[in-house]
Amino acid sequence: MSLGFEVELKEAHEAAITRVEEVLKGEGFGVLTRIDVRQTLRDKLGENFRPYTILGACNPPLAHRALTADARVGLMLPCNVTVEALDSGHSLVRIVNPDAMMGVGELGGSSEMRAVATEARAKLEAVVEKLRS
To answer: What mean pLDDT do residues 87-93 have?
Structure first.
């Protein structure tokens, strides 16, 4: 099982982030957090890292169902989406596979958790397909 899904976008980093956020919104996901890894590494370590952003995406109805079934799932939320700049001027987007997350620990043993993961995976796969078009 893959850890996540990948798609290369022709857009530069910031434009790719905007596009990813719009497509996520269309599938019912909001972005709760935005971590600028490049800036963080510059500030904390003095390192010059490529543009790399981690978006914390959340679909409230799915999060509610999952947290109601087992509060420990909060350790796996939100669903991470990374956007990184490539040398070509394009961007690489990676989106976590919820099925892989549910394979950690005891969460995968719950039929409700598996159902939520399946629904989340379908929505995130739709995001990838929309980004590809």
So the answer is: 97
Q: What is the CA radius of gyration of the chain?
A: 15
Walk me through the domains of the chain, giving residue ranges and CATH numbers.
4-132 (3.30.310.70)
Residue spans of beta strands (DSSP E) within the chain: 4-9, 30-36, 52-58, 79-85, 91-96
Rounded Cα distance between 22 and 131, Å, is 10
Q: How distant is the alpha carbon of residue 117 from its chain centre? A: 13
Out of 49-53, 61-65, 103-107, 110-114, pick the least confident. Answer: 103-107
Q: Whole-model pTM?
A: 0.94
**CA-to-CA separations, 22 to 28, 56, 57, 108, in angstroms, rounded:** 10, 14, 12, 30
Q: Which residues pair with 80 in a beta bridge?
A: 56
d(CA 61, CA 109): 21
Tokens of 55: 């978006």
Q: How far apart are CA 133 and CA 131, in angstroms?
A: 6
